[in-house]
Specification:
Number of strands: 10
Strand content: 15-25%
Largest sheet: 8 strands, mixed
Mean pLDDT: 82
Distance between the termini: 23 Å
Radius of gyration: 16 Å
């Protein structure tokens, strides 16, 4: 379980829960207005889109100023069309978003966010070891994910979907996460200065 590290203790945890609850409620309202489908993965797709908005990558990972932000899905795709519909016609700071469904663990080159599906649980330690400190934001929903080197883990909490962030691997990969995103997350790792 990730532990919140903050100078003011439980107040930030309560505030984060309130902000996260509000964000989840907004996402649920938005999701309910869409086409029928898998609401859980529609919400997670919206989170992935928002992660792209609140994460900064080293400029060297983009070959040009208008190169897309690529969300890779490794393993059995649980999103179906939900993620494609979520990012359709959207851009972040002039960069369009693209989804890349990956056939194997060696094809994540060019990805900026990598969602590792639960189907890859058995090889998860090897995947994270191969990624090392690549500037790729790793996301999964497996319970042990942030304990073994993953960056962001989705988890259920009081009929909502929350996420935990481990800042250790994020910092090691040279990524920067906005304080706005950290406010609504359960944060593990070294506090930023």
């Amino acid at each position: 379980m990730a532990v919140l590290i903050s100078p003011s203790g439980s107040w930030i945890l309560r505030r984060g829960r309130c902000l996260a609850g509000a964000l989840v409620l907004l996402l649920l309202v938005w999701a309910a207005g869409g086409q029928p489908g898998n609401v859980e993965y529609r919400i997670k797709a919206a989170y992935l889109f928002n992660f792209a908005k609140f994460v900064s990558w080293p400029s060297t990972v983009f070959p040009s100023p208008d190169a897309p932000i690529v969300i890779g899905i490794l393993g059995n795709d649980p999103f179906g069309s939900e993620i494609d519909e979520t990012i359709a016609d959207k851009a972040i700071e002039g960069r369009p978003l693209r989804v890349k469904r990956l056939g194997d663990t060696n094809s994540w080159e060019g990805c900026h966010i990598l969602f590792i599906a639960s189907s890859e649980r058995k090889t998860l330690p090897q995947i994270l070891q191969k990624l090392g400190t690549c500037p790729i934001l790793t996301v999964a929903e497996m319970e042990e994910f942030t304990d073994i080197g993953g960056m962001i883990r989705f988890f259920p909490y009081e009929n909502n979907i929350r996420f935990a962030i481990d800042l250790g691997p994020v910092d090691a990969a040279g990524l920067k996460i906005s304080s706005k995103l950290l406010q609504v997350a359960v944060v593990k790792g070294i506090a930023r200065k």
